[in-house]
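Input sequence (902 aa), recorded before submission:
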Amino acid sequence: MSNERTPLITSGGCGLTVASAVCGAEANATSDSGHGAPSKDPRQLNTFFGVMVPTILSMFSIILFLRTGFVVGHALLQGLLMLAVAYTIISLTILSICAISTNGAIQGGGATDMISRSLGPEFGGSIGLMFFLAKVCACGEYVLGLVEAILDVFGSDPESPVSVGVQVLPQSYWYTVLYSSIILVLCLVVCLVGAHIYSRTAFAILLLITVSLLSIFISSVVVKRQDFVIIHQFPGNQTVRYNTSYTGFNATTLRNNLGPGYTLDYSTNSVMSFATVFAVLFTSCTGIMAGANMSGELKTPSVSIPKGTIVAVLYTLIVYILLFILVGATCERTLLTEDYGFLQKINLWPPFVTIGIYCSSLSAAMCAMIGASRILHALAVDQLFGLPLAPAAITSSSGNPWVAVLYTWGLAQCVVFAGQLNAIASLVTVFYLLAYAAVDLACLALEWASAPNFRPTFQLFSWHTCLLGILSCLVMMFVINPVYSSGSIVLLLLLLLFLHYRSPTSSWGYISQALIFHQVRKYLLMLDVRKDHVKFWRPQVLLMVANPRSSCQLILFVNQLKKGGLFVLGHVQLGDLDVMPSDPIQQQYNFWLSLVDKLGVKAFVDLTLSPSVRQGTQHLLRITGLGGMKPNMLVLGFYDSCTPEDFFLQDKAFCDAAVGKGAEGEYNFGVDLPSLQAHFPPVRHVESPRWLSPEEYVGIISDAIKMNKNVCLARYFFQLEGEGRNSKVDGSERTIDVWPLNLLQPGSRDYQDVCSLFLLQMACVLNMSTKWRHARMRIFLNVETESDDQGWIADEEAFRDLLRKLRIRASIKIVPWDSVVQHRAPSGEEVRGGLSARFLAAVNSMLVEHSSQAAVRFLYLPRPPAQQSQAQQYLAQVEAVTNSLGPTLLIHGVTPVTYTDL
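Predicted structure, token format:
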């Protein structure tokens, strides 16, 4: 067969292309490369330049040179503890990143691509946008740190009216914003030129930072003791002077710095705490996805991302530990907390540190801007947020998403209005922690789903590490700032709801489906049919549908009748698989499922191929459902000669006016409205041949009863209105009529047999549904008042008592039918199975007289005859009784469904 040689399915490998059409164009260009010049592959970066270098630079960022003293000065031991907690959190997240990145091909978008392809569009889009915001805030933070370092060297003294030496730059809030804007423009220019230029210069930047680090370690040995006077200007023209020293390696200095000493932060004028210091420190751990965000430029992302990220994180951890201990052993606490640029003053050649600060801050800012633009571009290409992000999908000829870069630059420009690095550190940290928790959640969901295709080559993870990573991220979020944490989670939930209701459909797969399958299988095994009890009975319906065009009203009505139970639409296609090249049923499921979506009913679909409708119905009755969820009730349309109406021509969801809607075919799993209409044949005409004979129809009823299934025959439901999902009907104008007596057996006065009680139960279930809850229910008791036996009075009291026990609210109507019963005996006219035509007409007249205004009627369906030759007589009797009644449900119940005890 042709489909047995289908190539491996991919999720689209075009990385940074604008849309699927462009993907196709690139694919064609590649395949035709033999006839022309091959297209240039945008994936050119290896592990070292594409992952290790940007990750190291992002993790060094501003913390290495500008906030190491800030952390150590407030608490050296607690600072090491913070470092351990931070690296534990990111290590757990790295295990998840490595697992996901080695489970398949990663396209452009990095972390967003990982999360969206693992958790589906709702989680991918919402977490991706949150991660984008985190990157934008981080970019602004790094720029503010760079400006702080520049002003520390070149900023003029606020107390001195005359500039001294190189200290020529005026200082104020607005000047800080101006300098930050200029640096952002510089970053913008570099990012617009392309990521490859940054990746080439990044290695040179890393060399410069490494030289600066070596100079710090050498200076701790070479430079002798120095004393400093630090002056701070606080609001209200208050000037504070601090006398402090650099002592070199000194045991007393180390001992004094070990304990906590949280004090006032001179940059924000607020008192620090463990949480605020940790928030600043954790910004050094926000670069672990810098390599993952470059996935669109990596040659082998599934190999480079795990290897490069792990090595980079280990390297930065060692550097931070050594630097923390060195600083804590050589500098007094006051120097560390009151001068963030102290490393320049204690260096053997201060420009070494200055160059390191400028390089690390500028590279981290550019890396954050590039990473954010790639994330935004991935969101735009996936079309998750529609028109607002659509321009961000535009790329240059080299694949650079320049519009996404402009978006990122504009938002980062807004961030720098915060004015101080420490002021936004908590927000950046909370955003990143939430993004890391999402990555752990993606890996946890894949692991718990136990999908066979989740088999990453990286094995050093488990669901325990994923769960621990999620919990640690959430705990630290609320430790740092409960307000920011709550706000970010609320924003995430709002984005989730927006994307859920926007209902973007993708070809990535939905982790929710895998998890649901896993849980449903487990609970189906727990649903033991041997533990069924009548008081927990609920309808589980198999509705046989020949043509949905004429059955939509009935489908909608039965959807109200299921009361949270199983609802299956069954269809039998006539044919023999032996003479067919393939199974025609498999291709039809999408059309039926699209029909279910259009109608808005909660139903499954089960189709079968059979030589006859009766055999096919037997198949479905036996095999439909699973475990304890199997149909206990069969619903059939009535077998009569009425001309069906085409529901597709009446409902707006199916009419031709809706065909031209542009977005309709984009999210419907390949079934657009014209295809749906064309798939189902036109309704049957009066002259059209029937698919089944009366004998076969009655045989289906008999088969169901033999299989202990309750049977319902539905007639005239094409006349029922107000069942659609857009209908505002609440039932207040509706009436439900119940005739619990077997009208074709006049001698019966048993209102409490299984079938009568089943009738009452189904009417009560309907009365509890959404569109029928305010409907009035009437129960009609047929009595012979003219007979000498007055037992019907006692029967009525017994029936009222039964309704009280069953908690059924209904009015009881006494209907004398002496004039009807007198026609039951044959009087020389045509007799149908012992019932005269006059009797059947009289019964029909009685029903029309009392129930003509009812919205729906429930009638007792007699048991079909055992002899096949009497099938037509049986149908004729039922048809005569229900003639011109309106929507009527004839029910024959065979299972107990009511329970009066607790």
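Checked by second reader. The first helix runs from residue 20 to 31.
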